[in-house]
């Protein structure tokens, strides 16, 4: 089958745009389709974590993104009586070499991403083009489209990434249902500029008020966001007025000093798609999972999806890995995303209660267990292309050290497999395998203690093999362990198989 591109990406939001940029970086051709003619002008997502910033670093735009974002310095949980139940400082570098909590204005970041796409050979984003049907066919996928002028086109690709949002048409086309987590709740989301008014001093506050749960978030510049849960008796038309916003914010967003950019009612929900793959079609981002925004992991999870998938597509496209590698996308990512959806849904239940007695018991519990509201440690991947089923050190996100000269390690390694090892362990490898590593373009080997000691210490071994998405393939303590892990790297395994055939 002749193809128009290796991959068609449906959806031009942050996840779809990131996918396009990653595909171009990998040398794959890709066409993005976005039904909107213009970039969405207002904010939706407002939070990145350190792992997401590391992904943007790999695309070469993290420093530019850092200029239009702000690190979140602290978080509070506050009850009905305005008692601060929890205060947590968050302004610090994490083990990804970036701040773990970063606030941003989405159009600023999307603009940078679209500039990157325009400058990247082999990929393009077509705005105002809607995918009307998606069909798996022998050798690939056919996508029917219609443009703003009513022109229809049939496009073909080897694969499709459906990053078309919570109401995904692609998910509907394939009849993929979702499982529900927690209880749905309607919230008013208000974004805008707050001028000559103090707002709240803390960057993020969860107001666990049983009269009306709410959220506050300070964004770059003069921008702020507040969110208010709808309660019985609310008038959906009245509640979006400036006077209502001032009342709900208890005067924090006064009519004469707050200029709203968006006031909209959203349903916060927890959902996981039952299938993430249909032939050559992969769901990603909100099309695959949706979470209440309590931990700010919605967009982060979508970026993880495409980070996980695209290096695998690259290996398969080049014939280095078998297509069965793509089966590990769902098995690895779905349990990981489900953890965050379940955790956010549980936090939402705790924050959203409207029952005074329940709130009283919750407050007492939080006073005694403040860690209950903390952002949990990110889990390991589900079963897949790593040794986590036999070794709990594997399948987890690896760290990124900042070296003595200020260089972040990924700026040296790039998007390759990383072999980090104690020199003695590496020296004990068979000479032929060491030579193969030295000539393999998909692998970077580091032995300098100044570069690898922190990686080895964090992983708990004398040798670590890390995947291009920075998750740990495996950890070893002996040369035999390291040899086993290296032979799992697809390019090394492929070369070894060819060498064996030629003997």
Automatic annotation (TrEMBL):
Any one GO molecular function term: 3-(3-hydroxyphenyl)propionate hydroxylase activity
Superkingdom to which the source organism belongs: Bacteria
Enzyme class, spelled out: oxidoreductase
Keywords: Oxidoreductase
Keyword Signal: no
Entry EC no(s): 1.14.13.127
Record domain FAD-binding: where: 4-342
Record GO biological process: 3-(3-hydroxy)phenylpropionate catabolic process
Protein name: Bifunctional 3-(3-hydroxy-phenyl)propionate/3-hydroxycinnamic acid hydroxylase
Native source species: Microbacterium tenebrionis
Lineage of the organism: Bacteria, Bacillati, Actinomycetota, Actinomycetes, Micrococcales
């Amino acid at each position: 089958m002749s193809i128009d591109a290796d991959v068609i990406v449906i959806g031009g939001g942050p996840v779809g745009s990131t996918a396009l940029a990653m595909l171009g970086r990998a040398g794959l051709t890709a066409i993005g389709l976005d039904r909107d003619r213009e970039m969405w002008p207002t904010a939706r997502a407002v939070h990145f974590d350190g792992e997401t910033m590391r992904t943007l670093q790999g695309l070469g735009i993290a420093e530019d993104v850092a200029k239009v974002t702000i690190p979140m310095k602290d978080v509070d949980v506050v009850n009905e009586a305005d008692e601060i139940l929890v205060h947590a400082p968050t302004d610090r570098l994490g083990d990804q070499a970036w701040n773990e909590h970063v606030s941003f204005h989405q159009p600023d970041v999307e603009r940078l991403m679209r500039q990157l796409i325009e400058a990247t050979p082999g990929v393009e984003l077509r705005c105002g083009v809607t995918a009307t049907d998606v069909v798996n066919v022998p050798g690939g996928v056919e996508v029917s489209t219609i443009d703003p002028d009513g022109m229809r086109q049939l496009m073909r690709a080897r694969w499709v990434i459906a990053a078309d949002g919570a109401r995904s048409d692609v998910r509907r086309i394939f009849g993929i249902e979702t499982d529900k987590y927690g209880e749905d709740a309607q919230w008013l989301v208000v974004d805008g500029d707050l001028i000559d008014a103090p707002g709240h001093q803390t960057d993020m506050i969860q107001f666990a008020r049983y009269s009306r749960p709410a959220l506050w978030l300070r964004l770059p510049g003069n921008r702020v966001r507040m969110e208010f849960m709808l309660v019985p008796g609310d008038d959906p038309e009245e509640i979006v007025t400036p006077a209502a916003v001032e009342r709900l914010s208890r005067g924090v967003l006064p009519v004469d000093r707050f200029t709203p950019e968006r006031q909209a009612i959203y349903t916060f929900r927890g959902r996981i798609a039952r299938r993430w793959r249909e032939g050559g079609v992969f769901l990603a981002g909100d099309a695959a999972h949706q979470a209440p925004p309590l931990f700010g992991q919605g967009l982060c999870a979508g970026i993880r999806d495409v980070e996980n998938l695209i290096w695998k597509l690259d290996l398969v496209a080049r014939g280095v890995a078998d297509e069965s590698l793509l089966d590990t996308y769902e098995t690895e990512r779905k349990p990981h995303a489900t953890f965050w959806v379940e955790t956010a849904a549980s936090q939402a239940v705790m924050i959203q209660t409207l029952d005074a007695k329940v709130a009283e018991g919750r407050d007492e519990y939080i006073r005694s267990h403040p860690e209950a509201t903390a952002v949990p440690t990110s889990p390991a991947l589900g079963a897949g292309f790593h040794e986590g089923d036999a070794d709990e050190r594997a399948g987890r996100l690896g760290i990124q050290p900042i070296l003595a000269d200020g260089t972040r390690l990924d700026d040296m390694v790039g998007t390759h497999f990383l072999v980090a090892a104690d020199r003695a362990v590496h020296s004990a490898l068979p000479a032929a395998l060491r030579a193969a590593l030295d000539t393999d373009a998909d692998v970077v080997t580091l032995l300098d203690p100044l570069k690898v000691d922190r990686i080895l210490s964090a992983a708990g071994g004398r040798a670590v093999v890390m995947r291009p998405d920075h998750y740990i393939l495996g950890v070893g303590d002996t040369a035999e362990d390291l040899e086993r892990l290296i032979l799992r790297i697809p390019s090394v395994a492929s070369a070894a198989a060819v060498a064996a055939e030629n003997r």
